[in-house]
């Protein structure tokens, strides 16, 4: 028994403590499930990074710098010196945190500034910040939908949308992935008061895009609202990084956008909902992850503020990640690989077999390239792949090094000729 367990058993917590037998039982149940996960080959080990997040990183156990192609650091801002400096400044001015939820004493002028800037970036009326986009997704459906309403969700939506919808009392309907005929049939048959269509803008396992313009058309036809999760689009997708609605030429026509500050927008953390002012005011009153969770710390708010200023001033980084993506996708396709998805910096290199994908990723690492193999149950059986993520911060030489390594390993494993 660990020292911690002994102390815990002696002292208890607030007079209550686990009985030794109950804890033994817990350990046995979880231990055998963990063994099962390991046996199935789906145990997720974590590689320990010893540098800042960047295109070149170091990991524990090695001095070698490796090229990183698996972060959501699409704009390469996660260790941007200007952003880090601004974050340090606001840390000094505003302190480490607020020790409060927003409505008690957790709202600073910088939280309001960030909400305004995000609304301005998306061309929306108002924005509400959360600790994460997971929270934003967990907090919206339950707050606004009642049993009289209906929600229509793409079957491959992100786990946080699925969980958020589980919490609400509306009629829950799932439509086949990006299948507009199925969505239309369900909308036509629905007698929901409010009808809300919920979709990822970009689906992160395949790098494919929701058919947003046609979803918006269906929403108009059947008087429905459209909700889009833009975590893998905000800041870098569409000509000026406004996301899927810009990419699909329906700027301003989506009713509700949820997104994250934890990927392209500086990579720290935080999430938000942006949309009509009544919706945002209502969420401040009713959304549970907002009402009952601590406010975002100033140093994190600073990252969002600085990134928003950068993106409002210029789309240069957005264009760079797009041209890097084009370069990688074109060269890899020419070399004989199949790259799934559409024009997006998520570039899944399709391999099929799970062992092949994991072996391929291991061999890439020995060549100094960090990529990850994904296999069942994260993706369907027989559709194992290596998911490469391109960043604006990758240089052409770094991308070429990755392509060369892919070709070398691909030939040796007989994936390409
Ligand atoms: N939605 C999508 C599509 C995501 O990919 C993620 C992150 O993995 C989230 C929501 C959650 O975002 P956050 O990390 O801000 O909680």
Automatic annotation (TrEMBL):
Required cofactor(s): pyridoxal 5'-phosphate
CDD domains for the chain: KBL_like
Pfam family, one: Aminotran_1_2
Catalytic activity: glycine + acetyl-CoA = (2S)-2-amino-3-oxobutanoate + CoA
Domain Aminotransferase class I/classII large span(s) in chain numbering: 66-406
EC primary class: transferase
GO cellular component: mitochondrion
PROSITE patterns: AA_TRANSFER_CLASS_2 (PS00599)
This protein's UniProt keywords: Acyltransferase, Ligase, Pyridoxal phosphate, Transferase
Residues in coiled coil: none
GO biological process, one term: L-threonine catabolic process
EC nos: 2.3.1.29
Keyword Nucleus (UniProt): no
GO MF annotations in UniProt: glycine C-acetyltransferase activity; ligase activity; pyridoxal phosphate binding
Family: Belongs to the class-II pyridoxal-phosphate-dependent aminotransferase family.
NCBIfam families in the record: 2am3keto_CoA, PRK06939.1
Protein name as annotated: 2-amino-3-ketobutyrate coenzyme A ligase, mitochondrial
Gene (name only): Gcat
């Amino acid at each position: 028994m660990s020292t911690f367990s002994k102390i815990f058993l002696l002292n208890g917590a607030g007079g209550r403590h686990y009985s030794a037998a109950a804890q033994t039982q817990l350990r046995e149940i979880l231990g055998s499930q963990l063994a099962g996960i390991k046996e199935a080959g789906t145990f997720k080990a974590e590689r320990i990074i010893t540098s800042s997040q960047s295109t070149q990183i170091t990991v524990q156990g090695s001095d070698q710098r490796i090229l990183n192609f698996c972060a959501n650091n699409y704009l390469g801002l996660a260790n941007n010196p200007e952003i880090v400096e601004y974050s340090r400044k606001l840390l000094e001015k505003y302190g480490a945190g607020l020790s409060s939820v927003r409505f008690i004493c957790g709202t600073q002028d910088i939280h309001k500034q960030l909400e305004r800037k995000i609304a301005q970036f998306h061309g929306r009326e108002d924005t509400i910040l959360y600790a994460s986009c997971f929270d934003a997704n967990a907090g919206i459906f339950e707050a606004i939908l009642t049993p009289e309403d209906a929600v229509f969700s793409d079957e491959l939506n992100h786990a946080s949308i699925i969980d958020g919808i589980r919490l609400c009392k509306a009629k829950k309907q799932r439509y086949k992935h990006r299948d507009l005929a199925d969505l239309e049939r369900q909308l036509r048959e629905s007698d929901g008061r409010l009808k809300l269509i919920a979709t990822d803008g970009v689906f992160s396992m395949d790098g494919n895009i929701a058919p947003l313009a046609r979803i918006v058309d269906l929403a108009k036809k059947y008087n429905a609202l459209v909700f889009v999760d833009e975590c893998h689009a905000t800041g870098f997708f569409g000509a000026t990084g406004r996301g899927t609605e810009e990419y699909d030429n329906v700027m301003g026509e989506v009713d509700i956008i949820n997104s994250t500050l934890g990927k392209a927008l500086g990579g720290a953390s935080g999430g938000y909902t942006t949309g009509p002012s009544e919706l945002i005011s209502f969420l401040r009153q009713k959304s549970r992850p907002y009402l009952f969770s601590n406010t975002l710390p100033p140093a994190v708010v600073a990252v969002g503020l600085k990134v928003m200023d950068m993106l409002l001033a210029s789309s240069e980084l957005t264009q760079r990640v797009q041209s890097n993506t084009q370069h990688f996708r074109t060269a890899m396709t020419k070399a004989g690989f199949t790259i799934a998805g559409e024009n997006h910096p998520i570039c899944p290199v399709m391999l099929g077999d799970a062992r092949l994908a994991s072996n391929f990723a291991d061999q890439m690492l020995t060549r100094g390239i960090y990529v990850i193999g994904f296999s069942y149950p994260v993706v369907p059986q027989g559709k194992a792949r290596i998911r490469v993520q391109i960043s604006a911060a990758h240089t052409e030489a770094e991308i070429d090094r990755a392509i060369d390594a892919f070709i070398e390993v691909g030939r040796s494993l007989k994936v390409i000729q």
